């Protein structure tokens, strides 16, 4: 996104982001007879946990 902003707007020198580091965990749907947590890489339904785990920050600047 930052690269696109810089590409389309020559007057902008830098773009910064500070985004919450949210985690999503697979929902255990075994009570419905649906396997969603084993193996973990096949999970399709996720729920966010309540609190973010800090911020992910990035700045992209022109040379």
UniProtKB/TrEMBL annotation:
Annotated EC: 1.7.3.3
Gene Ontology biological process: purine nucleobase catabolic process; urate catabolic process
Source taxon at top rank: Eukaryota
One cellular-component annotation, GO: peroxisome
UniProt keyword annotations, A-Z: Oxidoreductase, Purine metabolism
Pathway the protein takes part in: Purine metabolism; urate degradation; (S)-allantoin from urate: step 1/3
Listed name of the protein: factor independent urate hydroxylase
Species of provenance: Asterophora parasitica
Keyword Cell membrane belongs to the record: no
GO molecular function: urate oxidase activity
InterPro entries, A to Z: Uricase
tRNA processing among keywords: no
Family statement: Belongs to the uricase family.
């Amino acid at each position: 996104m930052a690269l696109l902003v810089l590409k389309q707007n020559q007057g902008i020198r830098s773009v910064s982001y500070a985004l919450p580091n949210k985690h999503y965990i697979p929902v255990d749907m075994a009570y419905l007879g649906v396997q969603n947590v084993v193996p973990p890489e096949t999970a399709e339904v996720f729920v966010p946990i309540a609190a973010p785990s800090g911020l992910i920050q990035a700045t992209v600047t022109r040379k």
